[in-house]
């Protein structure tokens, strides 16, 4: 039988929609595969089906995972959908198929002997590690309109993972967190739940225009960091290990 590849959007809902359509096709799990993202490789003797995002189908898949598997499995699958890797969609589909087969007891994600499960585990761990690192690297600045703003350039789509942390940390602040790499903007308004908006920002320069008071505090902060440093104990190699060069672009103490 000819292989069918379902091509879906590179997003959580897009991949979950692809999982739904591939399963519902009833072509047999061995005869279908998933691809996500823009870098798609075409294969011989293969048919391709484009899958438009369907939020209702995505919700059903997420609900099924949580009902039939454990929360640890759902968290691993969800974080894997945020990975930058192009081959994540099919690994996620295979893990869900295995998880719903009833052949595993406890968390499916712990069965690392299976290559598909191991792949999802690695993707999820990579996203989680980067998200954890960014909790210490994000620097907010006050804009001219008094809104706090921060710009990051992560490798993975980590904003959905770190959003709750900053919303809980700054509940009484209006702030923006912009992922320049993936054009994702987290918007937090006082008294409301935070949301993520995707797409190109109309005037990205607004996210960099700091207020006069902010510039004064940045100078004070730089002076403080410089004053507490001990020249004789400076270790550039260790510093680069703890704070990689690629993370310093938006950190005032390194500018």
Give a structural overview.
This protein has helices at 12-24, 55-68, 71-81, 88-99, 115-137, 159-169, 212-228, 236-242; strands spanning 3-8, 32-36, 46-51, 141-142, 148-152, 175-179, 184-188, 195-198. The protein is 42% helix and 15% strand. The protein is elongated and about 70 Å long. The strands form two sheets. A five-stranded mixed beta sheet has the order 4-5-6-7-8, covered by helices on one side. α3 (71-81) packs across α5, α4 (88-99) crosses α5 (115-137) and α5 packs parallel to α6 (159-169). It has two domains: 3-130, no CATH class; 138-254, no CATH class. With 255 residues, it is of the alpha/beta class. α6 (159-169) links the parallel β5 and β6 (175-179). The protein contains eight helices and eight strands. The mean pLDDT is 89.
Name the descriptors.
single chain, 255 residues, alpha/beta, five-stranded mixed β-sheet, three-stranded parallel β-sheet, 8 helices
> Total number of β-strand segments?
8
Instruction: Say what oligomer this is.
Output: single chain
Give unreliable regions as ranges. none
SSE pattern, N- to C-terminal: EHEEHHHHEEHEEEHH
């Amino acid at each position: 039988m000819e292989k069918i590849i379902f091509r879906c959007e590179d997003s959580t809902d897009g991949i979950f929609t692809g999982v739904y359509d591939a399963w519902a096709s009833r072509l047999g799990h061995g005869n279908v595969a998933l691809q996500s993202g823009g870098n798609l490789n075409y294969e011989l003797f293969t048919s391709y089906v484009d899958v438009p995002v369907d939020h209702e189908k995505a919700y059903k898949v997420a609900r099924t995972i949580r009902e039939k598997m454990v929360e640890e499995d759902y968290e691993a699958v969800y974080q894997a959908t945020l990975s930058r890797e192009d081959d994540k969609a099919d690994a996620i589909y295979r893990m869900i198929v295995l998880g719903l087969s009833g052949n595993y007891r406890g968390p499916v994600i712990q069965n690392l002997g299976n290559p598909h499960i191991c792949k999802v585990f690695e993707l999820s761990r990579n996203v989680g590690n980067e998200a954890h690192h960014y909790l210490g690297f994000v620097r907010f600045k006050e804009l001219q309109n008094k809104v706090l703003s921060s710009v990051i350039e992560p490798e993975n789509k980590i904003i959905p993972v770190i959003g709750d942390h900053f919303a809980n940390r700054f509940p009484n602040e209006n702030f923006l967190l912009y992922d320049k790499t993936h054009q994702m903007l987290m918007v937090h308004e006082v008294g409301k739940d935070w949301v993520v908006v995707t797409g190109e920002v109309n005037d990205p320069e607004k996210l960099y225009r700091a207020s006069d008071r902010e510039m004064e505090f940045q100078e004070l902060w730089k002076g403080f960091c410089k004053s507490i440093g001990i020249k004789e104990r400076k270790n550039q190699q260790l510093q680069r290990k703890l704070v990689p060069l690629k993370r310093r672009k938006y950190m005032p103490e390194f500018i």
